[in-house]
Design brief:
Elements (H helix, E strand, L loop, with lengths): L1 H27 L38 E9 L5 E12 L2 E4 L8 E8 L12 E10 L16 E5 L27 E6 L16 E8 L14 E5 L12 E6 L2 E10 L15 E5 L4 H9 L6 H17 L1
Length: 320
């Protein structure tokens, strides 16, 4: 009787935790507050063309109002100051999602460029704000470049620093569950220039490209790629400065962030990207629990909570 009571308690606890998690996901996607324009996720600023040719620059206003440009300043091991250029996506009024290796160890400051018509060469087209904190996934190891597993990070900005109403900025929806991206047509957008290499050759305007999800086994990629999203592009491709770009999927007029660009040109070590090379994206749905819990209270260590959740859920499933 005692063992049955313990098992029943664990089952109820697992159900409560799961309900609480999905409730937090609904809040994160803004479905509970339609009065606040910033709370509506996944809505374009304007209608995008049906076909995107050669990775064109996006028209103004930027149809993907959640895309941001990131400039990270950090200290190398030699003590030299270095800048790193990446992209990110607004997922909440004060939180931006990117990949962890955009925020190296010894990062000193991080600036976010946002706006409805960002031109990096024209300061009048965008706003620049500073991050107040950033959160790296606890299982990520910056120094193991051969795998870069758990390559995901959250950037926090000050409340109200992003003006959603006047700057035509919005947030993208998080996936509510695993999405099979194999064979799916998706969009990615960023500030990289696939024809050139070097800090001075980043593209000043946002570019977009159509990509298609493929199974990683098709390219014979290593095991650590499993669990990520592999994609290829035919009419435009990413460059080395597209790290952190959103991988977006549209369903019924709502755009969802399914991946974040983590590695470009997997089969090419040269300066220019091969358009046939597969691109690797961190699969956002694999980290929903960490993302949501970090957004709700980033100062709590959730490792034990998540381990307990997985353990309880496993025991509940085994009893079923």
């Amino acid at each position: 009787m005692r063992n049955e009571l313990i098992q029943f308690t664990k089952m109820i606890a697992a159900v409560i935790i799961k309900i609480a998690f999905y409730s937090l996901l609904i809040i994160a996607n803004g479905e509970t507050s339609q009065k606040d324009s910033s709370a509506k996720c996944g809505a374009l600023n304007r209608r995008r063309p049906k076909r995107i040719v050669d990775g064109n620059e996006v028209p103004n206003p930027n149809p993907y109002p959640w895309t941001v440009f990131l400039v990270t300043t950090y200290r190398k091991e030699t003590g030299e100051s270095q800048k790193l250029f990446c992209a990110g996506s607004i997922i909440q009024p004060t939180f931006i999602l990117t990949v962890a290796h955009c925020i190296p160890p010894n990062t000193e400051r991080l600036h976010i460029y946002y706006g409805s018509s960002v031109d990096l060469n024209d300061p009048s087209t965008h706003n620049i704000i500073s991050a107040i904190r950033w959160y790296i996934h606890p299982n990520y190891n910056y120094y193991v470049e051969s795998t870069w597993e758990h390559d995901i990070a959250i950037i926090e900005v000050k409340q109200g620093s992003i003006d959603f109403e006047n700057d035509q900025v919005g947030q993208i929806c998080l996936p509510e569950d695993h999405i099979n991206t194999d064979g799916q047509e998706m969009i990615t957008a960023g500030y990289g220039n696939p024809q050139r290499y070097g800090a001075s050759y980043r593209n000043p305007r946002l570019r977009e490209a159509t990509v298609y999800g493929v199974n990683s086994t098709f390219f014979g990629l290593p095991n650590h790629v499993n669990g990520s999203i592999t994609a290829v592009g035919f009419n435009g491709f990413l460059s080395f400065y597209d790290i952190g770009d959103p991988l977006m999927l549209e369903r019924n007029g709502v755009w969802t962030l399914v991946g974040v660009a983590r590695y470009i040109c997997l089969n090419n070590e040269s300066q220019n990207c091969d358009p046939r090379a597969p691109m690797l994206f961190t699969r956002v749905s694999n980290y929903l629990d960490w993302i949501i819990l970090t957004i709700i209270n980033p100062h709590i260590n959730y490792s034990d909570i998540l381990d307990t959740f997985n353990h309880l859920e496993g025991e509940t499933s085994s009893r079923d």
